[in-house]
Design goal:
The complex is a heterodimer of chains A (59) and B (231). Chain A is mainly alpha-helical and 59 residues long. Chain A contains two helices and no strands. Chain B is globular, with a radius of gyration of 19 Å. Classes of the chains: A mainly alpha (59), B mainly alpha (231).
């Protein structure tokens, strides 16, 4: 799977990233951040649903 | 507040900020290197903070003009979320600075005190402290209407103080932050066009996230108030 992730480097025009984190493993970072974001969003949605239930029962 | 479209927009924009922010082509900058991508996240926190404080101001003014307590609840909720985003901005800035300004292998400056004397750091600390004082003020007054009125007036001054502390004075003094000739985040010379394409949606996404969290807070407070009245 790591090899698959390295393939886009060949297609990528920006070759000035000589750093260790050049686009090979950047996808891991993106995945991690998206998981965190998803977690936060799901938490917010859960709170919303609970609030909605409370508001409807109060009416 | 129960509308869904802007919350979905918020999630979409933040996903764009993360994916686009990490993949977009960046200009080759001397000290910063790849860390300039932090623009979408660190500065985004400040953009969110500013938006939230503006919303807080609007609700404070609304309270002063119509006396409805729900505006006061909203003002306080926006201010508290704004402070949280401000603290996050501070934390992300500290991490960013420790890798760029204060990097021990590549020190851009003589000593840590050069970084600590950075005017924007001090300015934002003052601004956040002023808003924290807003909450101290609120907790010191028992009567609901008095509290709302006095804190609404204080909120207006606190908002006005944001500008000299964060935007005006740091730009006059020699500073490590970019953008001394003009507007830092919005200066078109500082960011490449590709970055700007991600930057503005990211800022809007972070601001919407802040607003979403705050609306949940407000709704919760309103339910609490209703329960309180019922008893």
């Amino acid at each position: 799977m790591m090899l698959l992730m390295l393939v886009p480097i060949l297609a990528n025009a920006q070759s000035e990233n000589k750093l260790m984190y050049s686009n090979g493993r950047i996808y891991v970072v993106i995945a991690v951040m998206l998981i965190i974001l998803l977690g936060i969003v799901l938490y917010l949605v859960r709170i919303e649903r609970k609030l909605k239930k409370l508001e409807d029962s109060n009416r | 507040m129960t509308k869904v479209w802007w919350k979905i927009l918020c999630v979409v924009l933040l996903v764009l900020a993360i994916v686009g922010g990490l993949l977009v082509k960046i200009p080759n900058l001397p000290v910063l290197g790849e860390t300039i991508r932090n623009l979408f996240y660190h500065v985004g926190m400040w953009a969110a903070m500013f938006t939230l404080f503006t919303c807080s101001l609007v609700h404070s003014i609304k309270y002063l003009s119509n006396g409805k307590l729900k505006s006061d609840i909203a003002a306080s909720a926006y201010a508290s979320t704004g402070i949280i985003f401000g603290l996050l901005g501070y934390a992300t800035g500290a991490v960013w600075a420790s890798y760029t300004w204060a990097d021990p292998n590549n020190p851009a400056f003589d000593s840590f005190s050069a970084v600590a004397r950075e005017p924007k750091l001090i300015g934002t600390a003052i601004a956040l402290l002023i808003y924290l004082a807003y909450f101290i003020l609120r907790s010191s007054i028992q009567d609901m209407d008095q509290r709302a009125k006095i804190s609404a007036v204080y909120n207006i001054f606190a908002f006005a103080m944001l500008f000299p502390t964060i935007m005006i004075v740091p730009r006059i003094l020699p500073s490590l932050h970019p953008g001394q000739e003009g507007n830092p985040a919005l200066n078109f010379k500082d960011t490449s066009p590709e970055m700007r394409l991600i930057e503005y949606p990211a800022f809007i996404g972070w601001a919407l996230l802040g607003v979403w969290i705050t609306t949940l807070k407000i709704r919760l407070e309103k339910i609490k108030e209703k329960q309180f009245i019922k008893e």
